[in-house]
Structures are given as structure tokens and as C-alpha cells.
Amino acid sequence: MSDFVAIKKLGRTDLGWFKSLYHHYSNSNLKGINLNADVLIDEFYRDLAVIARATGNRVPVSVTIFGPAGAPAYPGTYKLVKSPGSKNWRLNGTLVSDPINEDHRFDILAPNDIAVIAFVGRPTPTSITLVLLAAAHSGDAPLHAALSPMFGGERRTMVSLDIDALRAAMGAPGVADNHPLGHLLDDSDMEAALEDAVQGGLRGIRRLQRGRSARRATPEDVERASREMARIGAEGEALVDTYLAAQHDAAGP
Fold first, then answer.
1. Which domain holds residue 219?
2. I need a labelling partner for 199 at 20 to 30 A (CA). Which of 57, 68, 117, 163 fits?
3. Are 215 and 163 found together in one domain?
4. Residue that is last in its domain, among 182, 208, 232
5. Is 4 helix (H, G, I), strand (E, B) or coil?
6. How would DSSP label each residue in 151-185?
7. Mind listing the pLDDT tens digit of every residue in the chain (253 residues)?
């Protein structure tokens, strides 16, 4: 489950974080995805700037990248960095090379493409998941179109995103059920669906069939949900019995 989610409109410098794009887009020594302070600090991590002083404003984080074009998980370790005199932070530490056997994976990315960024950890981030969406790819295009209006104008490049907005984007026409963005959906979605499904609820069954939660339901998940519903049912029956007995005693012989 993510603590915070944001969307970031990728600029030329952001794209320079990827090794295959660095010389094409970056015209400076800066590399990494810029993380706007008005979101990262003001909305998500108000104490980050103070805590990070102990590590020289370099906070290590594990990062998992999905996409673009529906590409699978690509894990690595990077840093959140704040340079002297800079207001914003960057996600960098080193250039992102193409994964083995996935040459040119990131080459489809272009300015104004979108990164959906999920942060986990408090009081500072410990892990980050990025889902990269390329407007030029047919599988990403519906989500790109659904999320783009949420920036609210050309000047904003990063905005926070709540889980309902993420669900709405996943429900947009043309979005594949198995798109990697589904990994960011709250696992409580699946838990609620399981509880409904084990009682024969059509809504829960359909939700599981769509498979848009952060993970697929396993037999163990279903068994656990069944046990939980049985426990709740038994407790409910006991409460009803206790209530009826109390009513009977109050009424007298």
C-alpha cells in the first residue's frame, strides 16, 4: 500500500535520467527526475528536509520502475537528492541503464510523458514505485489521456493523486486490465472484493475478475477471507443470542 501518490510530467532534464536518452535530452550535469517541493515536502514529507541533513541531503531509496509500454518491474537502488541552493529534490544517484535483454526500453519516452510515482515510508520515503506512461504507445495512451487533465494547466508539472483518481484512471476506456498501473491500487480493494465474493456478492466477483488490484487473489487469500467471514458471522450470531437472552430476561416470566 502506498503512503502517497503523485503524477509527474516529464521534461527534458527528467528524461536525461535514462542512460539511453541522456545525451539527447540533458544539456547539463543534472540527471534524475525532478520532484517538486510543493508536493514532495509541502504535501507528503514535511520533515524530510530536516531529517535528510544528517545524510547530506542524500536519502537512499529502493525504486521499482514499471513501463513504459507495459514493461515489467525493474528494481534498483537510487537516492533522493537536494543540491545546495535548490528548492526541489531529484530522484537520481546514477543513470538508469536499460535492463538486460531490454535494449531501448526507455527510448519511446518523450517530453510531456507521465510518471506515476508512489511513495512508501514515513517519516521519509524508503521505497518508490514509478509507472512510466508513453503517449506514443497504444497501451499507455488511454491512461496518459486520463491523467493529463489532472495537472490543471501547462505550468504545473507535478501534482498529488488520491486513490480514487487512480481507480478512475484505471477505469478509463481502452485501459487494459493488466496494465502495470494496477500495482499501485490499494490492496484493501482486493480484501473488500474477497469478503464480498465469498458471500456470493456479484460486485466482489466482478472486481476480482477484472484483476485491477495491486495483486491477484490467490487461493490462500480466498481461504483467509472465508475464515474471516466465518469468524465475523459466528461473532454476530453470538451477539444476537446475547441480545435475545437479555430481552427475554428483561421481560420476565
1. 186-253
2. 163
3. no
4. 182
5. strand
6. G-SSS--EEE--HHHHHHHHTSTT--TT-GGGGGS
7. 688 999 999 999 899 999 999 888 766 666 789 999 999 999 999 999 999 999 899 999 999 999 999 999 999 999 999 988 888 999 987 899 999 999 999 999 999 999 999 999 999 999 999 999 999 999 999 999 999 999 987 688 999 998 889 989 999 999 998 899 988 875 545 455 555 555 555 555 554 444 444 344 455 545 555 555 565 455 555 554 554 565 555 566 5
Length of the chain: 253
* 67 within 8 A of 140, measured Cβ to Cβ: yes
Same domain, 134 and 201: no
Where do we find the cell 542524500? 58
One domain for residues 103 and 219: no
CA angle 149, 155, 158 (to 5 degrees): 65
